[in-house]
Amino acid sequence: MGTPRSERRHAEPARGVLLASPAEGRKHGLRVLPPPELAPYVHHFWFVQWALTAPLVAEALPYPSAQIVFVEEAGDARAEVAGPRTGRLTRRLAGEGRVFGITFRPAAFAPLVERSMALLANRVRPLREVFGAEGEAWAEATHAEPVLDRRIALATAFLGPLLPSLPSEVRRVRDLVERMAADRSLLRVEGVCEATGLDARTLQRSFRHLVGVSPKWVLQRFRLHEAVEQLKAPDRPSLAALAASLDYADQAHFARDFKRVVGETPSRFVARARG
Fold this sequence. Notes:
This protein is α+β, with helices and mostly antiparallel strands. The chain has helices spanning 110-113, 127-144, 148-159, 168-182, 189-196, 200-210, 215-232, 239-245, 251-262, 266-274, and strands at residues 24-32, 42-54, 56-60, 67-73, 76-82, 89-93, 96-104, 124-126.
């Protein structure tokens, strides 16, 4: 049962990962692409396991998508559905534990809940509330299964029958968000409207319902993802050059946006990255 380890297709490293405190002990993470039948909906599966002698605090600017997460730590096991998070995500790891997650592609979770994704933004709900007793049975089977590939197989067996053929609007919004992540020329909502032929009101309505956040927020999140990656790089640009490349009016505007979301100034972030 499950995909042989030799056939795993690994997903690209996550973007928007901020600086973490040093790990004292063992920590292992993995990101795996989904099987073909889930690929229209699921971006990747992920797994983190740790055994630490001192707590570790990790932070990230999450991707605009929903997740299903199975957590086991401190003798507790829980399964949750997490909507898109607009602020930074802070996670404290201590002792021993493991987390198995399913990250959906943007907009692709909406058909499973048949409600506006804006109602899930910044919220975490028990898996049972979303998928009923069948979801609870899936969670119990997942927590009892130590092998990652078999957990992926359980997820595929549960989600596969629930996934309808993607409606055209969901496919359009999903692909547009992923284009916004990759196309560095799309930095403003006006540019997205021009590239797609959609008016701003239609774009706003579709994003709120299917993604859970506004197109302006999505563009800003991807700009900050790019900023974080460049500021962590050994050959990082000057802050003025980076601000200009991300279409900020000036370095001060960029610094304010960065500090508001990341929690520290770009200069302080660079100093910690060097350290």
